Amino acid sequence: MARNAFFLGKGGTGKTTLSAALAVSLARSGRRVLAVSLDPAHNLGDLLGVPLGEEPVRVEERLDALEVDLGAWVERHLAARREELKATYAYASALNVDSLFDLLRFSPGTEEHAVLLAIDHVDRVLAPSYDVVVWDTPPTALTLRFLAMPTVSSRWLAELRGLREKILGRRQAISRVNPESAAAAGAVAPADDPVHARLGAMRERLGQLQDLFARRSLLSVVVNPDFLSVAEAERISQALARLDIPLSAVCLNSRDGAGSPASLAPPLAGLPLVTTGHLADALRSRDDLLRLDLAPLAEQLLHRPEAAR
Amino acid sequence: MTTTIALFALALYLGAYFTFGRRLRDRLLKSHEAPAAPSERLSDGVDYVPTSKYVLFGHHFASIAGAGPITGPAMAVAWGWLPGLLWIWFGNVLLGAIHDYLALAASVRYDGRSVQFVAQDVLGKKAGRTFSWFLLFLCVLVVAAFGDIVAGQFAEDGRVFFSFVFFCVAAVITGFLMYRTKLGLGWSSLVGVGLILLAFEAGNLFPAAWPKDLYFVLIFVYILLASTLPVNLLLQPRDYLSSYFLYFGLLVGGAAALLSFRGLDAIPAYTGFSAPLIAGQPSPFWPTVPLIIACGALSGFHALVASGTSAKQLAKEKDALFVGYGAMLVEGFLSTLVVVAIAAFGAEALGAKLMTTPALNRFVQSFAAMVTAELPFLSMSFMTLFSALWVSTFALTTLDTTNRLGRYIVQEMATPLRETRPGLYRLLSNRWAASIVIAFLGIFLARSGGYAVLWPAFSGANQLLASIVMLTVAVWVKRSLDRRYTTAVLVPAAFLWVTVTCALVWYEVVAVPTFFADPAKTASVVTGVVVGTLNLVMLVLSFSMVGSFFRSWRLEPAGTPEAAGA
Amino acid sequence: MSPSAVATIRRALHALRRLQRERATAVLELELKELENVFALLVFGGFVGLPSPPAPLAAELLPLLERELRVAASRADLAHDPLAALAGTLDAG
Q1: Chain B contact for A176, CB < 8 A?
Q2: φ and ψ at A7, to 5 degrees?
Q3: What is the value of pTM for the model shown?
Q4: ipTM of this predicted complex?
């Protein structure tokens, strides 16, 4: 089972840099690594020195990387829905299908859903071929939304499933007495009801993702020695706590070598602090990334026991 | 004589159906040329589903047949058996059946909208609100009237209460069998009927000799429970099982009445124009007969029921004759049987106590006597329990369903308060609060009022509802149908409104003061204030309704020659 | 007994059976439609401004909920004028 590392933090703190650094160092130490960029800014390819696409690209001997094209995922998702609708609805005129999908494209939830679809795809299809997957996350707002989505959606889905079972029960009761009733047509056992099954499948998928974030990943938040990035890191830590997703480390990425920032408040203070020092010269190549010392993080990632279910 | 009367009633109703009814259908409504029924045009597999007219008839009839067509006529024999019968026959044919039929037809033409909606469209928004008020009062007053009647019957015959309790248990079990097992309707029903017979036995084994006050409390608790339990648990299977009471009762009653050839000598044909009936006061037959005989002759509530699901499910508009007109006539026949049973067998059942025993028991004993006389394999003990349970079950069913309805109406009417008085709105739309208030008020009135004075109040509300419907229909006919028939509908509508209004004025002036006879009895005084106020409000609303009516009457629909010329 | 009389009786019994079936389920059907209406609103409410699951989830369920949508549309209509349907089905007699 591949282990996952996520870097979170305010924009510009160095998430992409640190993810690239961790990916390269783990690959050089003998692990098979996949680096994934979820960030629409797509700087990962620049850092690794290789143009990236949606399929994994070999960067070096044990390191592959890819860039998720969120727009393409949204389009694929919408296209699949549109096809299904057209196929299953008896009267196409009942819904103006095209305008419905325009609405969907910009609806709250669509972007983070696309991210989750991409993560799910990588996790299920690609990750088994690697030992470690390193994820570069998009800006905090979107990241927190996609991290929250499985938890939030799970509750909805559980409610809907319960109500669906109630509806099916009532339909069964009616059809036992009056098989000719219109309700009898949909009177099936929950196991045979496509809606119930789909609700279950959705919950299952989201459950896997919840599992990925909460139990199979190492999340670290990146800060700089300045007030704003620390404040954002605190907010991130609180949000994750509400979602029961553990935050494992704080990476202090100090570009000018100054010491640790004004004291980190708990709970950030209680986390392992990884300090990456100042680099005298700018980063010019992939090898330069190794100068960022992320050994403690790698250590935590590789050797901590899998969290109990 | 009984046979003659029963046959005459049959003939009258059948004759009215095939002549009068058909004329209404073919000349007034012109159903053969009418647009397709909404169940066809708007068919959606949800509510607009074309249904067989026999199924609709049965459903509609079972919905409108309750304790009403039995209780009213049983009270009306105070005037002698003839006046009541005449109202049951001619009131039904000339008023009640037309009212039901045209309400249904109007609803069909309005795409299945309720008669309240039609009233609002035709007479104005005030009519719709008035409708709600009358209905709300009806929900309280029906608890008051039926509550006392049933409590009285429980107290009179100790077997009935436990029979009823076990009947509810039987319903729950039958529901379980029908809805949770693969037993199917047939076998479950068989078990259900068997359990009903067991319930009878239980009643025989556990006669309860409890005071009437305790029954009031129990009925109150019952209302709250039954109106809040999930419908599949008690309400649905109970409604289903109680239909067997109706079928059996009609069957044996009809057969016995037709076979008995007994003279109607238990009561004089005519005792006097003003019999001491309502609140013990001499009640003039006109105008107070609608306050006694409601369902059976005419009931506003039927219009609401007809325009509910039936209108959306009629396969063809011409089926409305069978469902709307026909069902009401059958109800009239049921009421006829009630009068016949009391008039012919009352003496041998109750002897001298016939006119002093409460109306329901009067019916129970007489009906049982009639049936056992002609069908000797049924025992008196069985038939009296059956009849008592029949009416009690239907009455109690009405109590909890009107509680559910009343809850909804309260919330609906409180909607304007949502912005202005949110606290009050929250209170009113709390389902427990509404349920408790309606049930409590009803039982309180029942206890301190007594059905002799509360039944007419309930009946009055019911007849006022009917008068709104008749006035609505009259304007609708004038506007949308053939103007030549307007008078044919307007005359009964006007007659009804005048009669009911005079009756309620009489009630306010003669019956309500009886509550204040002894100022020391606070409960009685409070009841008097409540009932008197409700009645007054209804009268005021009724007059304002007529105002709307006249305004709408004068309004010409756009595009007619009169409008162009005006 | 003549064949047409037998046929009539058979039809009458058939109608009676259908009637009893309907009587045994009318209220249940009303309740069921309400449940289906609620389900539809819970899933699609987001499209009309109610708090609801994220749009993509709703969209995934949409193709399977044709009946529920029709019920919801029918109920939206009924909600303006439900009194008669309630009175008729609840059998307030």
Answers
A1: yes
A2: -110, 125
A3: 0.84
A4: 0.84
